[in-house]
Structures are given as structure tokens and as C-alpha cells.
What does this fold into?
Amino acid sequence: MAKKVYAPGEPYNYQLLIKHILEMPLVFAPNQEIVYRDKLRLTYRQLNERIHRLAGGLEKLGVGMGDKICVFDYDSNRYLECFFAVPMMGAILHTQNWRLSPEQILYTMNHAEDKVVIINTDFLPLLEAIWDKLTTVKKVILITEDGTRPATKIPIDIEYEEMLAGAAPEYDFPDLDENTQATLFYTTGTTGLPKGVFFSHRQLVIHAEALLIVTGSYDMVGRFRSSDVYMPITPMFHVHAWGVPYAATMLGVKQVYPGRYEPEMLLKLILTERVTFSHCVPTIIQMLVSSPAAKKFDLSFWRVLIGGSRLPKGLALAAMEMGIEIYAAYGMSETCPLLTIANLKPWMLKEPKEKQVDTLIKTGIAAPLVYLRIVDPTGKERPFDGEATGEIVVRAPWLTPGYYKDPERSKELWVDGWLHTGDVANVDPEGYVQITDRIKDVIKTGGEWISSLELENLISTHEAVFEAAAIGVPDPKWGERPFMVAVLKPEFKGKVTGDDLRQFLLKAAEGGKIPKYGVPDRIELVEAIPKTSVGKINKVELRKSYA
It folds into this structure.
């Protein structure tokens, strides 16, 4: 791209570009470390050179403006390099969810029109299964951990580290228009084809700045500052790991990337690298806090932001008993994702922990630059009184403008200038949002609505419950009735029954915590609850099994 020539007196038209994020740690903390498992340590200076080499290597393979680069990898320094090099050179980063089915992966790659694939050897079988049906892929770059290339029918053009070694250490990244598309990924809906969402350089930069404000500038639980050690436990293919790697790089913090999620490795890295800030879905923290090994160590230095689905009170209390600072946030793939965060207000910081937890597990208050309303089905705004419910609709500078190459579903997403989330919530007079359900997950019995999330949150406080899920099942008299499945902690198996859990909810109903008609007629004990590709409870599968 030709450089613009400025006339005398003409001001520089500064654009919000991802490359400007990378410039900041090179001044503030050039020798700070980026760690990959127990395999590799880099400084920001070295990371910067590798990013330049990656861009040069991709250009040698014919990558140009607007080309889609599809990445299959675990959370690694390589993925972080792709987060920067690909969009900075004007190409588009397609972060591939390798947990999707082969058919869904095939659809997303052809729909995105991917030109180049960067793939870890572990995921070659996925690509082999669909290789003959891909229509646009021209080049394949193989990621190996030790340089060994496995046998494969896929024509490999070059190995990742070989490509970097053969490229120049400097690349002249262009001054792009800030509205240039930077990333693309596909939502993991449980019905229908995946939907592509996309974001520009401008949106990602503003999102990173807002994330730093909301997590670092307020006096709050779980503060994120330049002295922290950051490790994501949200896959980097999922909404750019919630955008935190961009924010962490802007701060110049030490970053730790765990590769494949293995409980032992995660715990080892948390302890040996002294990780202070992470984010994940509830199922991940559930796995860690229930691990006997984790309970042997002091984790009071660790702060964890929970998103993806509701943070149950029982899980939050279990984490707090281990000294972990834990709190909730809310967003969606379509929103980049930050919308709200459960920051405590100044007077709440003086409350006892047992009182604070009720606020920390809430969906939270709107982040800076986010406008949030709740509306009824006609679009009429509902009051913030803590009781009235409605669908959350939002505006913010970083929301996807629509679904990629899907104008019809884009019209359903954006109505009257507001992005419609599909989430039902109430908002209290202090501005704290509490999601009560997805519109499609609300249980409607005898004309009354029951929140499946409230049932799940309540039963999570029973000492025997590991996790639980609530759905509505057809009923000839009431239309629908609530039904629950629960997984017991190992030490309670054979000692606690589904009826015991139902009696627990009946006592809660007698105490006014839920209406009596909200108590399920039956609670079934199961060994496991089905999950989506990003670790959320898969209620579509539950309905197929039990409805």
C-alpha cells in the first residue's frame, strides 16, 4: 500500500489501528516476558520481531489486503502473533473454533473464503476430513511443537517456524483505514448454521481501551494492572479470548499461554508463573476448584473474571474459600464481547464478603461507552426497578455491524438502531443487570415465567451439587414444567438423591426465594451435562433428551 504524502500544514489523520497497541509495550516494558507452557519464553522485543517475520512470510505466500487467514491452534504465543501480524498487514484473521463439527468447520471456511490455513498438527485430522470439499484454500502452514511433520494427505507449503526464520525481521505495516475489517469468527449456536461476526481495527482498539478502564481504573475486586501476570483460560478462537490479549499487550503485562487446557498444566503455570489474572467460563473454574490438587495450594493471588454463562453463587463461594477473587462479566460474540461487569460501587467495598458475593455474581453494570436498555416484545423500554424484565438491547462502538454475508439475520440482530441480545434481564435501581434467561430458555408454566438460571443458581448452593441445568419440558396441563438434571460431587454419590435436591428447593420456595410453582416435579441425577463447543451448558441437547 502506497504511503500517503501530506501537504504542508495538513494534519496527520490518526487512525485507531491494532499496530498502535503493539507499539506501547515496546516503550513501557520491552523486556517483559511472554511465556508458552513450559516450552518458550519471549520478550516483547522478540515477540515484535516474530510478528514482523510472520507478516513477511505470509506476504511471500501471496497474502494481500482482505485475504482471510484461518488459524487452528491452542492458546499460544503463535496465536498472539497472528492476532497482530494478520490484521496489521491488512488481511483478516479467521479464528477457527476447532471444537465445531467437521461439517460446521467446512461451512465456516468456505463461507469465509479462507485463502491460507495456519494449523497445529493436532488438528490435521479435522482438516483432512474436509480437505477435498474446501473451495478457496490455497496455502497451508503447519505448526509443529518440535519440527516433526506427521504424514498427511494435505499439501503443506511450509512449517511455521521455518517461515519465520526465512522472513525479514522488519515489515512495513501500512497505515490502514481504521474501519478496515480485522477479524472474523463464527458463533457457536446450537441450532442452524454458524453465524459470522466481524470487527474492525477501530472497534478492537476501543474495546481494549474500554476493557482496561473497566478492569483497572476503578477501585474494585479483581483489578487488572501493568504489574499483573495474565493467562487466558478462554480459547483464543472465542471472541479474541474476550479481547483481553489486546488489552494485556497494551499494558505490557507478563503473559502466559497454556496451550492445550490440561488441569495439571494450568495449575502448574498459575503457581510457577504466579498468574494473577485470568478469565474463563464457569465450567473451567469448577474443574479447578473441585480438584483435590488445587486445594493444597495458596491461590489467594489469583483473580478470575467469569463470563459465557451465569456464575452460580455456590461456585463463587467455593472459589472464595480457596482465596480466589472471582467476579462476573457479560457479553456476546456479537458484542466483541464486553457489555457489563460486576464492579462493586465504593460503598459496597465496605460490605462483608458474604454480602458482596450477591453483587459479584450478577451480570453487572454497563461498561463505559455501553448504552443498555431492557425492552418488552413491542420495543417499549422497561423500568430499572429490579423487578420488570425485558430483552437486553445495547449500543456500543465495538458491536458487530451484522452477520457476515447474512443480511436477513443481520436485520433480526439490529432493530431500530439497537442490537438485540436475546437475553432476558432485570436491572435494579443501582444499574446492576441480572440476566434471568435467554428468551428461548425461559420456562413458561401456567402463564408464569420461571428463570432456569435462578433455579440453577439456587441449587448450586447445595453442598452436594457439582453442577446443574434446568429446562422446560412439555406438560399437558401447564404447557411447560421445570425439569432439572444435576451432577453430584464424587463424595456425595449414592448418599444424596434427586428427591433430596427437590426438597432443598421446596424449602427455598417456602422461604420465598422462588415461587412454589417454580420447583421442578423431578430432578434427575446424571454423570455429565452436555456442553457446547465453548463450554456452555447445551440446553438444546437436554431438550432433545428429556422433552
